[in-house]
Amino acid sequence: MLLRLATEFRAAADDTVRARIVRALLPAQDAAWACAEPDQILRKVAAAHGGAAGTPRARELALRMFGCLADLAKDSVHVRSIVLSGLRSSNAAEVKAALFAAGCFCKLSEDFSYITLQVLAGLVISPKSEAQVIMAAIRTFSKLGCSLAVIRRVHEVGKQMVLGNLEDVFKAEILFALSRLASKSIVLFGDQVALLLSFLGHESSLPMRTTVLKSLCFMFRRNTFYLPGASTIFGTLLQLIDDEDFPLDCKSYAFRILQKILCVKDPSIRHINASELSKLALAAKRFLHCSSWEMQYNALEILLDIFFCFLKQTKLHQTIGTLESSSFSYTGYPGISNYMLSTHEETSEDERSLNKILTAIVDNIISMANQLTNCRSKEVATGHIYVSSCELEKYRALFSLLLKLVSGYPSSASAALDKQLVVLNHLLNQRLEVSKLLAWKLTLIWQS
């Protein structure tokens, strides 16, 4: 099949046909091709690139074709020279196509990665390079990850560029590319986090700080790291959350990062002391009244994870003492009941304080569910009400949060169930389809 495609690619009189062939192969660009005559395939594609009547578009497509056939072409000296020549072209589209091919080769070849890195660095710092070429070159950095040695070298070069005189837009892109690489290496993870934190100060532009937070979110997404400096991250991100001038969507990124850190099953979490967790709890408490539904939900997630963190890793009396002294005990929210969540009689002041925290979490979850329901009630007074997929996801998220609570702390199940029965009755009266979802969640909670 590949030989036939290569033959058609060379013989095509119209670049549209070549483009279709490339698009067909793009989804399989990382495939390990098995064919009897790889050299013949490469010669046919090279002929389309170097033909006398070849157009710039034909050369561009040939380079992308080589990228799709990287498993066959990565060790060919002739093809490598074609790709490297394309990187020095004066045509921006051809350079970008060569960058695509080089990136595909670098995933498989360590020696070609070092060669490509030198060329990429030259493209990024060259005053003659167009902005689109620089951005494409920077994005290729993240593909140079075939070995730890290569990743380390790329990180060194990228760090030098970031600390140099590049424009902020390019620095931000490099930081994200380096973050993608560093997330693969436990050795570089901490260094990259420290580099990112250095760009979160007020002297950095808002777009730069936004990119840094997105990069941190990307790095923490898998929860597979060891981070002795977790306390430093906590302090830095808490300052951003407390900054009134910092945009709400950026604070949302900060909350997500902190939540990921709390969920890590790693000794590094022990470096986060109770006072820092208490400060985060207070910050999350403020966002329970936020106009943004997403921020309210993030705040609830944070509070729940803080609770579990205290429950598992701190002695109960130390935990509650810290929380109570910081005025974390929840008051003033409409609809909060005074009864405790525990199914048994509390025997200590610590336990009563802990149950106040749980009551706040449960009541806020139920209140947010009621807000969604009331919005639908205003739109349609009678008849069958259907919720959108977006609203259905919100219901699912809220009651999954309750399920997480009672799974981790079963003694909260009784009160949580009582509150959800009230909401379920309200939903059934409106015949909302989401009541089916709620009934299923209630069953899971009861079983827990």
UniProtKB/TrEMBL annotation:
Pfam families with a match to the protein in the record: INTS7_N
GO cellular component: integrator complex
Annotated ranges, domain Integrator complex subunit 7 N-terminal: 2-431
Range of residues in the leader sequence: none
BP-aspect Gene Ontology terms: snRNA 3'-end processing
Domain of life: Eukaryota
Record-linked InterPro entries: ARM-type_fold, INTS7, INTS7_N
Family to which this protein belongs: Belongs to the Integrator subunit 7 family.
Name of the featured protein: Integrator complex subunit 7 N-terminal domain-containing protein
Organism: Triticum turgidum subsp. durum
